[in-house]
Amino acid sequence: MIILRRYLYIPTSYLIWMQWMVFSITTAAALYAGDNGGRAGSFLRLGLGPRARAMGDAYTALADNVYAPYYNPAGLPLIVQPEVAVSTGILSFDRQFTSAGFAKFLPPKAGFGINVLRSGFGESDVRDADGNATGEHIEDTQYTVMFGFALRFSEKFSAGIAPQWIHSRIYDVTASSVGLNVGALYQYSPVWSFGISLKNLLQKLQYSRNATGLGDETTVDKLPATLRLGVAHHHSLNENFSLVASYDLEKTSGYTLAHHFGAEIGWQNKFFLRTGLDQYDWTAGLGIPFDTFGEKLIVDYTVILDGRNGISTVSHDMGLYVRF
Amino acid sequence: MITNVHGDCPFYPLSFFMKRFTIVRYQRIVYCTGLYLAIFIWLGSAPSVIAQRSFKMPNETGAIAQERPSGNSIGVITTTGDTVFIAAGSNLNITTNAGAAWNIIGRSDGLYKGSPVAITHHKSVLYVTTAYDSSLAIEPTYGVSGGISISKDFGNTWSHIAQPTDTGTIRGPVVRTDARTSQPIVLNLVRDVMRRQTGFLTDSIYVVTIKSAIDNITFDIAVNDSSIWLAAFAGGLRRARIALDGTIGYFTPMPLPPDSLLEIKADRDYDFSIDPLEHYNHRVFSVISARDGIWCGSAGGINFSSDFGQTWKRYTSDQHHISGNFVTALAEQFYTESGSLHRVIWAGTNRALSSAEESGVSFTTDSGATWQTSLRGYFVNNITFDGKTVYVATSDGLFRSSNLGQSWERFITIIDQTSGDRIFTSEFTTIGVTPKSGTHTIFAGTYDGLGISTDDGVTWTIPRAYAKPGQKGNPSSYAYPNPFSPKYGITRFQFDKDDLSSDDRVTLSIYDFSMTPVVTLVKNAPIDQTIFWNGRNQKDQRVANGTYIYIIEAGKKKFHGKVTVRK
Question: What does the pLDDT average to over A105-121?
Answer without folding.
Answer: 96
